[in-house]
Amino acid sequence: RNRHRECIREHARARPPSVAMAEAATEVGHKRPLEADVKEGHPAEPSARREEEEDPESRERDHFYDVCWSCFGYRDDALKEVARFQALCNSLSPEDMAIWGVDVPQTDSAMQMGIEMNSRFLQILPTPEVCGAYMSQRQEQAVFSVPMGHRIAGRNMSKVRTTLRQFVRDWAAEGQAERDATYTPLIQALERHLPAPALGSGARKPRVLCPGSGLGRLPFDLARLGYAAQGNEFSYHMLLGSHLIYNRTQQTNCYMIFPFLLSSVNRKGRADNLKSIKVPDVCPCLSLTADCDVSMAAGEFVSVYKDQKEEWDGIATAFFIDTAKNIFLYIRTIAEIVRPGGVWTNLGPLLYHYSDVENEISIELSWEEVRPAICKYFNIVEEERRNASYTMNSGSMMRTVFRCIFFTAVRNSEPVTGKSNPVY
Q1: Phi, psi of 195 (to 5 degrees)
Q2: Which of 19, 120, 132, 374 could form a disulfide with 296 if both were Cys (CB 3.0 to 4.6 A apart)?
Q3: How far is Cα 74 from Cα 155, in angstroms, rounded to an integer?
Q4: How far from the centroid of its chain's Cα atoms is residue 84's Cα?
Q5: What is the pLDDT along the chain (424 residues), one digit of tens a residue?
Q6: How far, in Å, CA of 424 to CA of 420, rounded?
Q7: DSSP structural state of residue 133
Q8: Can you tell me the distance from the alpha carbon of 395 to that of 209, in angstroms, rounded to the nearest whole number?
Q9: Bridge partners (DSSP) listed for residue 410
Q10: What is the distance between the alpha carbons of residues 139 and 52, in angstroms, rounded to a whole number?
Q11: Taking the model in full, what pTM does it have?
């Protein structure tokens, strides 16, 4: 399940840049990682089903189907919210409705229009090219055909909604403030401690890894500055989204989505949730020159990179280190793959995303406890607290602001010792 294949393709101005894809064993998810489930129902004859069961990669395909089919299931799921709105209106007295003053048919129409736009966008995300398992022609066609009676897991539908908000964070003008708070400090730290040569100079580019890269904006921005940047992601929802932006998008602001459509609470204005967002604010196929070097590798971070000893000049982690079940394993892996003198810059909280997942290991350390483990292999040269949000609705009356740990550290010469139990 953790085999890894990686191919890095050169980007050219004349065509959409290709994103290197490697195998993703199970979906962990960018912010709330959960183990993959086995789908119920499969578009195959009994004999084909037996063939699937004998195939060691069938579980991977099954999970990929589940993720793709959740994109196709958005419309039906979202329309339940329209029905709920109508039922709530019907439950009010004529006097209350008069005080409220809402135009029910107009609001209903606006919501349905937004749902339809979101659904059309989500339905172009699935592509067999992203699957980490081999797919026959029949299996590839099944990606676009949801079996009758298939039930979409609630966590996958939730992930579909968060994916829409992630597009705002990474690829919309409205997400610039979040990117400035999270990605910009990391980029500036690399520019100070691991400067890149000018594009076109022919000089060697520093290799920088961005694990937990979501929809891939941070490696894109680094590549434009002259770094050889690689994103790493485990979530199929995120991988499908970055594949669309990098490989299948030809112009800026060509998709319109309504990412906050179903968020009816904490609105200041009546129509705040009906606001449309256009993505992407920049188009990789137009912005990346032939000299830019950016790639994506899919798979669980430790499994993919554990054998790449001292192959990386730098690593930039944004809202990532607390996705570990055991943070010591992440620290050892980072120390192993970054060369002596290389740079690690980090910004994020210690939310520990497995902390509320039943029957999962979650080692939840304080920064006071994490810091010495990092200092065994790195010399911290910058450290401060930075405020940052994650997929926030800027118009909402409620905001979650993380007081993040920001640090920049230089790899020392201490050899990596010890080992962690394989809990990833």
Answers
A1: -65, 145
A2: 19
A3: 12
A4: 30
A5: 332 333 323 332 223 334 444 333 323 333 323 333 333 334 444 444 455 555 668 999 999 999 999 999 999 999 999 999 999 999 999 999 999 999 999 999 999 999 999 999 999 999 999 999 999 999 999 999 999 999 999 999 999 999 999 999 999 999 999 999 999 999 999 999 999 999 889 999 999 999 999 999 999 999 999 999 999 999 999 999 999 999 999 999 999 999 999 999 999 999 999 999 999 999 999 999 999 999 999 999 999 999 999 999 999 999 999 999 999 999 999 999 999 999 999 999 999 999 998 888 999 999 999 999 999 999 999 999 999 999 999 899 999 999 999 999 999 999 999 988 877 5
A6: 10
A7: S
A8: 33
A9: 343, 379
A10: 10
A11: 0.87
Q: What is the DSSP string of 345-408?
A: EEEE----TTTTSTT-------HHHHHHHHHTTEEEEEEEEEEE-SS--TTBS----EEEEEEE
Q: What is the rounded distance in angstroms from the CA atom of residue 393 to the CA atom of residue 263? A: 10
Return d(Cα 85, Cα 261) in angstroms, integer. Answer: 12
The single-letter code of the amino acid at 49 is: R
Q: Residues with Cβ < 8 Å from 76, sequence gap 6 or more?
A: none
Alpha helices, H only, 11-136: 46-54, 58-72, 74-91, 94-100, 104-122
Looking up tokens 């830019």 gives: 292
Task: Return all residues near 107 (Cβ < 8 A) that are at least 6 apart.
Answer: 85
C-alpha 271/C-alpha 264 separation (Å) is 10
Write the DSSP assignment of 269-294 as a string of letters: STTGGG--EEE-SS-HHHH--TT-EE
Is there a contact between 227 and 196 (Cβ–Cβ < 8 Å)? yes
φ, ψ dihedrals at 301, nearest 5°: -50, -55
